[in-house]
Amino acid sequence: MNKISKTAPIGVFDSGLGGLTVVAALDALLPHEDIIYLGDTARVPYGDKSPETVGRFGLENALALLERDVKMIVVACNTVSATALPFIQSELEARGFRVPILGVVDAGIEAIIPRNPRKICVLGTRATIASGAYERGIRAKLPDTETISIPCPILAPIVEDGLANHPIATSAIKHYLTPILDSPPDTLLLGCTHYPLLIDAIRTVLPPSITIVDSSIAIAEKIRETLEKLDLAKIIDTSSGRREFLSTDSPRLFAERAKVFLDGKLSPMKVEEAPCR
Amino acid sequence: MNKISKTAPIGVFDSGLGGLTVVAALDALLPHEDIIYLGDTARVPYGDKSPETVGRFGLENALALLERDVKMIVVACNTVSATALPFIQSELEARGFRVPILGVVDAGIEAIIPRNPRKICVLGTRATIASGAYERGIRAKLPDTETISIPCPILAPIVEDGLANHPIATSAIKHYLTPILDSPPDTLLLGCTHYPLLIDAIRTVLPPSITIVDSSIAIAEKIRETLEKLDLAKIIDTSSGRREFLSTDSPRLFAERAKVFLDGKLSPMKVEEAPCR
Q: Which domains does chain A have, with CATH numbers?
């Protein structure tokens, strides 16, 4: 790959469907850009898996998008961003690819810096929290800020089962947030693309003064900035960009379950199968 | 493969760790038999995936066990048993393998026949329930019995997070069982290897008269019968059989998380990595 084309699509991948919240945010911010989304629904979720396995799957997803000549790789999956971004970057460089790669973890951290928080709580999958990526990133940029990280393994399955507004969601959130209720943080960082759908339930548990940062919106902003900085932004026109969806498991199941994350946006949706090997 | 050896190990596979409940039941019933267990922890869970993907993964797991010369394949995963057992059987036959294959679904159904239930409720993953395998199997053997099937996607994640005895488990069970509380069944069939760990929570929601059938115990009985019938049982001796564990993701994570399912049994555990491709 020599010159990257401005008119090429933005490639976004996630372990499954959660990254569609990033596509929805991008669709609102950069409607004229083309987007190809890959969901590794055959092997989802990644959140309980080892960094080695997550890195291998993430690299395969990135390569599948590069076969479709994307101009940028967006890692919409917090688990991959937290555990394997440097690995994927170096593997792609070794193969001669020079497209920019952005991950939701860095975007989330950058979004909170201007707010100058005193105390941050990060929620994520087991693998994301175990990686320490959020804590390290926050310490590097905001050395005086206290960070507490809480793994919340059953929140993503609750969202996927359409129970985000059910009392089960509230009781799971209460369970996980118990350690911070006595002395709550000023900022809550949602370190999983499923969690924005739980904001209403979270608001019933935490004081209203808390700022909740949604990394899917943060990364859409960062994608725009990066495309402009690298002179890779498509010339703005009034036509809507192409939206393509790839699924490693059944396209029919993908389209059915995508509704939870898209709230009527981007439908009807055409999904193509892209086997994971 | 010509003659199957009596002294060969029994091969058991599952999408992840839930099938360890079958190993524990086998360990109690046939302590002298050797057992090799494969957990496809890199791609777990299967319960929300398509029959095609579940079939492909299941076949790969069976072939990995056959490479280790097992004398029988036990499909400890309800999702694979319900959606893909005939596919795996015919693929193995086409490759010249003649080892017997047993699945938890048939074993669970056979275990309830002598009880002659009037009304059965089956709980399982989305894929297990969508397959209709339990309903078809029950209708064939017990045509006058009414069957209700309920998909319970967040119960397995709750068990894996160690929350089986937490109020979250009870409220999730109440949520799923609401449709049957007014007119409860006489028999509850646990169609997922994670659910035996929820029996205490289920008992707080359902009337005490209900019979709860645990398919991991049912299949251990069926394995013994089949080995005897086919003259494949190892000669009983006083030594304990070998227990080998294979994991497609990190062996360390496997050993850590296996504790939830084994309750102190079979530990310490040696786990070997067996990449899923």
A: 10-103+217-273 (3.40.50.1860), 106-214 (3.40.50.1860)
pLDDT (0 to 100) of residue B277: 57
A32 vs A235: CA distance, rounded Å:
8
| Cross-chain Cβ contact B157/A160 below 8 Å | no
Cβ B69 vs Cβ B8: under 8 Å: yes
Chain B residues with CB-CB distance to A under 8 A? 41-44, 48-50, 52-53, 153-154, 157-158, 160-161, 163, 166-168, 171-172, 175, 248-250, 252-253, 277
Are B219 and B25 in contact, with CB atoms under 8 Å apart?
A: yes
- pLDDT above 90: percentage of residues in chain A: 89
Contact at CB, B153 and A167, closer than 8 angstroms: no
**The amino acid at B261:** F
For residue A57, the distance in angstroms to the closest alpha carbon of chain B comes to: 9
The pLDDT assigned to B268 comes to 62
What's the whole-number mean pLDDT along residues B152-171?
A: 95
Which tokens go with A261? Answer: 């994350």
User: Within 10 Å of residue B201's Cβ, how many Cβ atoms?
Assistant: 24
Would the pTM count as exceeding 0.90? yes
Phi/psi of residue A235, nearest 5 degrees: -65, 130
Min CA distance, B34 vs chain A (Å)? 28
Contact B154 A158 (CB under 8 A): yes
Find the CB nearest B49 among A42, A52, A157: A42
The four Cα atoms B186, B192, B193, B199 give a dihedral, to 10 degrees, of -40
Residue B44 C-alpha, separation from nearest chain A C-alpha, in angstroms: 7
Instruction: For residue B10, give the H/E element and its range.
Output: strand B10-14
